[in-house]
Amino acid sequence: MCRMQAKPSPLIDPARADADGGPLLFAALSAGDMRHTPTHSHARGQAIGALSGLLTIGTERERLVVPPGYAIWMPPHHPHGLDAHGPTSGWSVYVAPDACAALPALPQVFQVSGLLREAVLRASAWPLAPAPASAQERIVAVILDELAAAAREQLVLTMPTDRRALKIALALAADPADARSLNEWAEWAAIAPRTLTRRFAEETGLSFTDWRQRARLMRAVELLAAGQAVTAVALELGYDSLSAFIAMFRREMGVAPGGFAAAHAAALALP
């Protein structure tokens, strides 16, 4: 094990992350302003948790949003880049390849349980001199069990691979408020509506309607974390009814947008 290092991104040099260093390696994420980490990959799997601020992670086909209290899992050898949107703090756990067998094969966002948070904090505080092997093994087992049991949240947006469907997806990701119907989008991209419906379902795992709602949800999380008022966010995302936006957000996130924004602000205020 290694002590958590309080320094900005990149968290751990990829060569060091790939080296043999026990089942888990730990690092801290600390950014005082917006920061971009270019696309990279490593042989270890990686869990990145946000304590304050907002992180977004991009891969070849996914975009993931990580608000405070959440984390992402990135499988081994999966290229990804990271953006910190303003002052951000968090943690990262690098998991050795042979310990990743029971962990997800695809990137995912999950809510950090109290047990996982405390286990990571305990392990990251170990002195440089190794703790008794049995104590380390028990904490490592807890962390791996919690990562394996974490439920996937609705903050992952998978892009289609069909060039016409991808053209539509990129336009909607840039402007989730665009209210054009499926038929109008299909005509714009020169694709049959039925083919468009099938491509989104097969290549993203979501219907066109659900994909567009996911894009709106993820933009809402970003805007709320940036301090925008709930009403302003609803209007920017194209909702005619504030109550409809609140109902969507609560259904997907388990909390009203105002409660999410308040929790985010409270996390930023922590020392």
UniProtKB/TrEMBL annotation:
<keyword id="KW-0804">Transcription</keyword>
<dbReference type="InterPro" id="IPR003313">
    <property type="entry name" value="AraC-bd"/>
</dbReference>
<dbReference type="InterPro" id="IPR018062">
    <property type="entry name" value="HTH_AraC-typ_CS"/>
</dbReference>
<keyword id="KW-0678">Repressor</keyword>
<keyword id="KW-0805">Transcription regulation</keyword>
<dbReference type="Pfam" id="PF02311">
    <property type="entry name" value="AraC_binding"/>
</dbReference>
<feature type="domain" description="HTH araC/xylS-type">
    <location>
        <begin position="166"/>
        <end position="263"/>
    </location>
</feature>
<dbReference type="InterPro" id="IPR009057">
    <property type="entry name" value="Homeodomain-like_sf"/>
</dbReference>
<dbReference type="InterPro" id="IPR018060">
    <property type="entry name" value="HTH_AraC"/>
</dbReference>
<protein>
    <submittedName>
        <fullName>Helix-turn-helix domain-containing protein</fullName>
    </submittedName>
</protein>
<dbReference type="InterPro" id="IPR011051">
    <property type="entry name" value="RmlC_Cupin_sf"/>
</dbReference>
<dbReference type="Pfam" id="PF12833">
    <property type="entry name" value="HTH_18"/>
</dbReference>
<dbReference type="InterPro" id="IPR014710">
    <property type="entry name" value="RmlC-like_jellyroll"/>
</dbReference>
<dbReference type="GO" id="GO:0043565">
    <property type="term" value="F:sequence-specific DNA binding"/>
</dbReference>
<keyword id="KW-0238">DNA-binding</keyword>
<dbReference type="GO" id="GO:0003700">
    <property type="term" value="F:DNA-binding transcription factor activity"/>
</dbReference>
